[in-house]
Amino acid sequence: MNQEAMFGKAKWIGCDPAVSAPNIRASFVVPAVRSAKITICGLGYFLLYINGKKVSDDLFVPVTSDYVARPITVNGQPFDEEMNHRCYCLSYDIASYLQEGKNELAVALGPGFFGQDTPFFDGLRFSFGQVRLCYRLEWVDEKGMMGEVLSGEDARWHESIVTWHTLFRGEVQDLRLCSASWTTDSYADWKKVNVLPPMDTDYQLQDCPGDKIIRQIVPRLLKEAESVCQYDAGENISGWVVLRDQSEAGEEVHVRFAEALNEQGDLDEKFMHGQHLDMISDGKGRLLHPMHTWHGFRYFTVQGKARVQSVAVIHSDVPVASSFACSSPVLNWLYDAYVRTQLSNMHGGIPSDCPHLERRGYTGDGQLTCESALLALNHHDFLRKWIRDIQDCQDIHSGHVQYTAPYQRCGGGPGGWGCAIATVPYQYYLQYGEKEPLEALYGGMCHYVEYMQAHSENGLVVSDRPGEWCLGDWCTPGSEMPEHNPPQIPAPFVNTYFLIKTLRVIRVIEGILGKTENPAWDGLEKKCRRAILDAYFDSQSGDFCQNIEGANAFALDIALGDERTLTNMCAHYRQLGCYDTGIFGTEIVTRVLLEKGKHDLVFQLLTSEKDISFAGWMRAGSTTLWEYWPRGYQRSLSHPMFGAVTKELFHYILGMRQEKGSAGWQRTMIEPVMTDHLPWAKGHIETPLGRLSVSYQVREDGLHVEAEVPEGMEARLCWKGRERALHAGKNEISL
Question: Is the pTM of this model over 0.90?
């Protein structure tokens, strides 16, 4: 909808352009009200108070989007792609906050992604404009009379305690600039707001969960030296530290954050990413924490007179909707670490790559981990919003899908990243049985295929937008250290694989939607398959790309190769004893081997004790997944992308898989396949029909299973050729 439909005659208001984190106040008079609501948007982030009370526990709202068109340059050249733009607004019931007569409205604004003009790690700036506020307060009195209060020239603004801010690093606060009771103090000496021009965007009420303080941790004091105390939160999280100021006015408190310690036991500079919180005290003993950002960390130091109250774990309010445990400590660690990593990377409706350094919604990482997140979390509303972001960030003219959604300047590739426009809504449909996203994005999927064709030569996808990266796989072992010059899986091979996979998904979607199948898809797929065979298949050995970095698995997944291709791949990984793959190859190798019945080999890879392994991360004491396999080279210790294999804990260890053609878990097969290695396992997921849980034990007399099946689900249990139908409710079966 447009601005008038959302806000009526309300106006966007702001402050001096040089101030990025102002406070705004306005007074208004209402009679005794029967009902009242406010529709509000503060960009980038806002906190709303009425009569001194905070209206919601939401943080970092509205959720991030590609708000409005803005000038962008790529390698010094204007960015000429045209995308759609959307701005989310919130609506709150505020009747209980109002009083008859005079009322006080106060809003704290922060830059967020909208007004972020401070360059972050790679020097990029991506501000959409000046921070701003718009609201429409509507009330109905006890006699049924209606009225409204609109943002406009009568409001006033003042600098907040935040004197310097960057979303990716932290804040500098001067508590002397603004009292703790600023929401109700007199503001007669504040400056008049500026009326800002309307924005050309699509306004929409936020239907995605905002961020919240999810839980509190009491950190452990590790050491104290002079005026610096060092703490351990016990796990790598996203959030902030809450302190009680004990300083005199004018004294300073400095907090620094890191994901790891160095060999000397101090914060490791490599994993600090410049994160900080600096404060000048007003001597009033206030609670201290950031206003408009979060940090990604496990360890932190406090310098100055302040007492640590807690560590607040903050992320989007997305509940964990699963459990998993088995007899393997490594697999238990993998589940726990993936869930913690995924949640730490959920802020503002974006599944990000890391919670500190970049915070961008990479379409590659997001489509890769989509199914694991759908199984592990109550992901419905969050993912539905991100699907819109993917749709918005497609170039209207060429069909190019950006590497991040919402779009921020970044790197990736046309295949593993762009295919999100098809794979993500399709996985959403399989989980929830809802066709609307498929309908909404079907045209964009077809346009994306046209883009891939336009960047192909002789059937291989060989390029992307000029000046952009054109990655195939990413973060393969050794690729992070170019001096080693390891062989790498060719990018055209990987990108053409993803084009073929996308074509296959689109054909399935056409059947779901009852659309006539495009006859060109078959011809295009055949051309691409022939090109891969001609360029990358060795007919003498049966290998693709010398069987490196999962290349044979990529080929087998699109029905290329012969019996030697699988045999050689299995022999390679049995001898290697660990993964040699990047973010896409790790998932593809694992899934293809499982689908081919090579369960023993997958168990060996998932539980490998070698350095390139999940066990290697566990031995290092990590509580989250890393960006790269090797310990020697890391940027981030909180990247969910390698967690894509977590879905197999549910699909194959617990055995919970949908039957072919099922959506929304209407028809389910429970077939645990690693019982020879795992004497017991248990867990559950939440389906649209209700909870599905499985617990099994292997005893001398066979397999003993307890399964809880929700009403409306058709389910059967299979194990080593034996099969039993399951009924709704609790089932206890021995096979």
Answer: yes
